[in-house]
Amino acid sequence: MKFTINQYFSKQNSRCGYCKGTKCSISHGMHSYTMFPEDYQELIDRGWRRSGLYCYKPLNNETCCPCYTIKCDALEFKLNKSHKKILKRMTRFLRDGKKDKNEETDRTGDFSKDAVGSCVDIDEDDCGGGTDKQSASVGGINDEPREPKLPIPNINFDVIAAANQERHEEAQRSPEHFDDQVPTEVENPVIATETECASKSSCDGSNQQRKKAKTIRLERRQAKLAAKGIEVSNCETSASKKQKVSQEKTLADYFADASANDKHKLQVILIPPNKKHVTDEAFNLYKKYQLLVHNDDPNRLTPSSLERFCYKSPVKYTKPRSGPQDGYGSFHQQYWLDDKLIAVGVIDILPHCVSSVYFFYDPDYSFLSLGTYGSLREIDLVQQLAKKVPALKYYYMGFYIHSCPKMRYKGRLEPSYLLCPEAYTWHLLTDETRRKLDESKYQRLNSNTDAQDVENFQTSDLSKVMLLYDNAYLTYHRYIQSLNIPTIDNMLDAIRSRIYKKITGDDDDRDLIIEYGKLVGKSLAHRMLYVKT
Ligand SMILES: [Zn+2]
């Protein structure tokens, strides 16, 4: 089967995890049986996002808290002061095995980390975290829209493949899909071990002293220059700029320094889609995180809920030759501190990005700001993958929700871009953007009013929409033609369709398919299969 298959549900009202309203979050959704990585890439580039097998797209001009898809250009990524502090703190911890003195008494660390985007709310000036537990309840996994409890038809892929052999072969030849992909059963999946990290260099007490001495020297020099009437500021900036360029440490530099003498060893291991399974360690970690960080109801914390949100994924595991060594699909990054699992990053590796799905960690190690550290690791992963696949250069953090101040931290990974909810173009997140969003929570973002969605779906595109109906895939046009032949089967279908409409409240399937076409865009509507009941 070479098709993405979705059961579309239309508009849903649900509880909002950001403003805590009961029914004010409005989104469109669909259940995805299977999704090709390039199709999911296109969907997230149109404002969709997945939670387990459920894909949803917030209706930004109507919903209480507009959600703007946010991505960071990993190849242009600039570490800020706070990131560097976190990286150095981890290095010191691994080297000495001790918490920093000022962190012993620190509060909960980066508890406000948003699970969805795997980032952290840390003030530039307060990188020890120090956000309270109350803020932590924002953005947890339970705050995402849930799949409505509507009947999902069972789909037998073998039956469909057999019934559509000819088309199946045709699709395999299609250049739109990977021509050399390997299906889910991949032999010898490589567990790509990343680096252990620890650094002998940089920020300890003696370094602080050196810094002071340097500052004193610089001040003396400036005083001398000033005495000679030379403009101090220009002179200073050009000198310090040069120094910065030559000394700038990259993310990889921070992660690469490891020493055998380190007290602890941190290993970040990439687990491929076919090797992921719920273990006691992963479940206990998830449970502890959900309970302590998101005040979750213990009764809801079962291995099956973990599996539903963090393991199940419609994204098909594919390994095209031109793609990353470990392929595309839904992976986990496990963080092992010596022999203890302390964090798990749930990520999708797609043709243009690594997309963060969820991140959970052991709250006992929140002094290490694991949420932010995890984001930096994921950016590093993008940087590594981009060496082989240059198009894969973005880090998707999920949604930027400006109307919820606790969810604004995602914009701190720079440079970041927001997706225009109308034209589906990307726009650099600047202070000007923030100012506009302060004025009005819904913004088009693309200031050119002529700019339109290039995948704009018109009614005339309806006839070519691909449907999966009665185990066959066919265009909407063919489906309508088949209905005109009055057979008992068709009459039964009509009755079945009427019952479906009663359940879903939809007046007309035709309108529903048009709505779906507009949300997924023309190309995807003509490529993916819409499950017609
Ligand atoms: Zn809301």
TrEMBL record:
It comes from the Eukaryota. One of its GO terms (cellular component) is cytoplasm. Residues 281-420 form the N-end rule aminoacyl transferase C-terminal domain. Residues 127-152 are annotated as: Disordered. It is an enzyme of class 2 (transferase). InterPro entries: Acyl_CoA_acyltransferase (IPR016181), Arg-tRNA-P_Trfase_1_euk (IPR017137), N-end_Aminoacyl_Trfase (IPR030700), N-end_Aminoacyl_Trfase_C (IPR007472), N-end_Aminoacyl_Trfase_N (IPR007471). It catalyses: an N-terminal L-alpha-aminoacyl-[protein] + L-arginyl-tRNA(Arg) = an N-terminal L-arginyl-L-aminoacyl-[protein] + tRNA(Arg) + H(+). Keywords: Acyltransferase, Transferase, Ubl conjugation pathway. Signal peptide: none annotated. It holds the Pfam family ATE_N. Coiled coil: none annotated. Residues 14-85 form the N-end aminoacyl transferase N-terminal domain. Its EC number is 2.3.2.8. One of its GO terms (molecular function) is arginyl-tRNA--protein transferase activity. Involved in the post-translational conjugation of arginine to the N-terminal aspartate or glutamate of a protein. This arginylation is required for degradation of the protein via the ubiquitin pathway. Belongs to the R-transferase family. This is Arginyl-tRNA--protein transferase 1.
